[in-house]
Design a protein that fits this description.
Number of domains of chain B: 2
Number of helices of chain A: 7
GO molecular function, one term (chain A): ATP binding
Oligomer: heterodimer
Number of strands of chain B: 0
Radius of gyration of chain A: 19 Å
Number of helices of chain B: 11
Largest interface: A-B, 50 and 38 residues
CATH topology of the largest domain in chain B: MetI-like fold
Largest sheet of chain A: 7 strands, mixed
Keywords (chain A): ATP-binding, Nucleotide-binding, Transport
Strand order of the largest sheet of chain A: 1-10-9-4-8-7-6
Largest sheet of chain B: none
CATH superfamily of the largest domain in chain B: MetI-like
Shape of chain A: globular
Distance between the termini of chain A: 41 Å
Strand content of chain B: under 5%
Keywords (chain B): Cell membrane, Membrane, Transmembrane, Transmembrane helix, Transport
Helix content of chain A: 25-40%
CATH class of the largest domain in chain B: Mainly Alpha
Organism (chain A): Streptomyces cinnamoneus
Protein name (chain A): ABC transporter ATP-binding protein
Helix content of chain B: over 70%
Order of helices and strands of chain B: HHHHHHHHHHH
Order of helices and strands of chain A: EEEEHEEHHHEHEHEEH
Chain lengths: 266, 294
């Protein structure tokens, strides 16, 4: 048995020679008066390299979703800066967020239209993206006619339709059953390896983080700080039940538990 | 033991698994057969109407009250036949319906931008939002005296009363439609670049459509009620004979079958417009979203 190929580091920054796909630089976020309230995010520094798959892991209250909103440009940091050189990132939510007044195909076409794709090319491109998530026949399906897993795949296709360099994912598979989630993990890694996407994936599921990420970043709760990072050296394709995935998960879970216990002692 | 040698999932297996999941989970949408529709949707109201007629007839046969207060159903039928043979029936209906629809369209043109303003501009909402929802509970017949003094017994007075009744409903419907749009849709729209006018066009308005249509439906009901009130109170020969005036004339002639016929025709038109225009529209919009109960 080979040992899990992991190295633990604390705080990584990409060298100046390679431009980061996402650069989060000493970001603070607090709601209300500065100084008066405990911040949600405290001095977060994190780079995502081009083409890298990074999983952000943390218990509730660690500000994972807040951080994604900041990167998506839906909110502004209180201090610090976030740069996404490739333009507006695509964002996928825990809920599919598909528009129920449009069919699956039209949802994707709306993203294409907003991106400026001319009408003539939209239909074919939407069909291609549906094929990519293995939903070739679903173009004319209404959202309510699709299962939870299918909806998330359409949502993924819609996110890909934005043609962003960066894909942000906010616990996108948390509401799915284990087998469906497993299938979607596989589809996501396949699509990620076929494209040049950089992915920032938020989850509270340690195994999911280890299954998917090249790097797992553990955040503390209230305030959210980067506690530790792991480079996951296990080659893809991985499976969630792999021993190496399990071993590293145990190690990270222990660290996460310690982080949660800290709150009980206050 | 698997160890760290990660065995790739066979593509075929996975595709099969995926297809199985999709087939198991997908919602089956079935169409109801026509016979069942007739049995469940058409038969009950027909039975209810027949029952009312039977009770009516029994009350007449039992002579519970004088003939001139409760005429035989056939007397009302006779009035209807006379109007039809005169050739005035459709004219009377059309006079009122055309007024009602024209007034409604005007109310739509005013109520929609007003509703958008109230929904999206906080100052406007604070200023007129409460008044607008308060106006909904004011019976529009209360406006008739004022409208008659301002505008005389004219078509303009009729339209004024319709607008005062319907505009608040339509505007409020749009406001509550916009308020009920899940914030998630707006966030999803913004990440795709649907902001400002494009956000309103591609996300906000379609998302608010069910509430807006409910407002339109109520707006029509208010238009029709207001118009009938106005026609009843402010009836004059120069205005042409509408349903309200027909009813008022029957009252002055102590023509009870005519009065009942007038009431039934007003009810019938209200229901017919709802069934022909608004209900199909509403059903279509809701069904598209998987919200309609079949």
């Amino acid at each position: 048995m080979t040992p899990a190929l992991t190295t633990a580091t604390s705080g990584t920054a990409v060298g100046d020679d390679i431009p980061a796909a996402v650069r989060i630089d000493h970001v603070h976020k607090s709601y209300g008066r500065p100084g008066a309230d405990r911040p949600v995010l405290d001095d977060i520094t994190l780079d995502v390299r081009p083409g890298e798959f990074v999983c952000l892991l943390g218990a509730s209250g660690c500000g994972k979703s807040t951080l994604l909103n900041l990167v998506a440009g839906l909110d502004r940091p209180t201090a610090g800066s976030i740069t996404v050189p490739g333009g507006r990132p695509a964002l996928m939510f825990q809920e599919h967020a598909l528009f129920p007044w449009l069919t699956a195909g039209r949802n994707i076409e709306l993203a294409l239209r907003l991106r400026g794709v001319p009408r003539a090319g939209r239909r074919a491109e939407a069909e291609r993206l549906l094929e990519l998530v293995r939903l070739g026949g679903a173009y004319g399906k209404r959202v309510h006619e699709l299962s939870g897993g299918m909806r998330q795949r359409v949502a993924l296709a819609r996110a890909l339709a934005q043609d962003s360099r960066v894909l942000l994912m906010d616990e996108p598979f948390a509401a799915l059953d284990a087998i469906t989630r497993d299938v979607l993990h596989h589809e996501l890694t396949r699509i990620w390896s076929e494209t040049e996407l950089s992915v920032l994936f938020v989850t509270h599921n340690v195994r999911e983080a280890v299954r998917l990420g090249q790097r797992v970043v553990l955040l503390s709760s209230r305030p959210g700080r980067v506690v530790r990072e792991w480079e996951v050296g296990i080659p893809q394709p991985r499976r969630i039940e792999d021993a190496a995935v399990a071993d590293l998960s145990v190690e990270i879970t222990e660290e996460l538990r310690e982080e949660i216990r800290r709150h009980g002692r206050h | 033991m698997a160890g760290t040698d990660t065995t790739p999932v066979a593509g075929g297996d996975l595709a099969g698994l995926e297809a199985g999941l999709d087939a198991l989970d997908a919602v089956q949408v079935k169409r109801t057969p026509l016979r069942q529709v007739l049995l469940q949707k058409v038969l009950p109201p027909v039975v209810a109407v027949v029952l009312v007629l039977v009770v009516w007839k029994l009350l007449v046969l039992a002579r519970v009250t004088d003939d001139y207060k409760l005429p035989d159903p056939s007397a009302v039928g006779g009035s209807l036949r006379r109007l039809w043979l005169d050739g005035t029936l459709l004219d009377i209906i059309w006079t009122s319906v055309s007024r009602g629809l024209l007034g409604f369209v005007a109310a739509l043109a005013i109520g929609t931008p007003l509703g958008l303003l109230v929904a999206r501009v906080p100052v406007v909402r604070a200023a007129i939002g409460p008044i607008l929802s308060g106006l909904q509970s004011l019976p529009s017949v209360a406006w008739v005296p004022a409208a008659v003094i301002w505008l005389g017994i004219t078509d303009a007075a009729m339209y004024a009363v319709i607008l005062l009744g319907a505009v608040p409903s339509i505007a409020n419907g749009l406001v509550s439609g916009v308020d009920q749009v899940p914030p998630l849709y707006l966030r999803a729209g913004r990440t795709m670049g649907a902001t400002g006018v494009r956000g309103a066009r591609f996300v906000l308005f379609p998302a608010a459509l069910p509430g807006y249509i409910a407002g339109l439906k109520q707006g029509w009901a208010f238009s029709w009620r207001s118009l009938m009130a106005a026609e009843l109170i402010a009836s004059s020969p120069e205005l042409g004979l509408g349903l309200g005036q027909y009813l008022e004339n029957a009252r002055t002639d102590s023509d009870m079958p005519g009065v009942l016929l007038g009431i039934l025709l007003i009810l019938f038109v209200g229901i017919a417009i709802d069934l022909i225009v608004f209900s199909p529209l509403e059903r279509r919009v809701l069904r598209m979203r998987g919200l309609a109960a079949r």
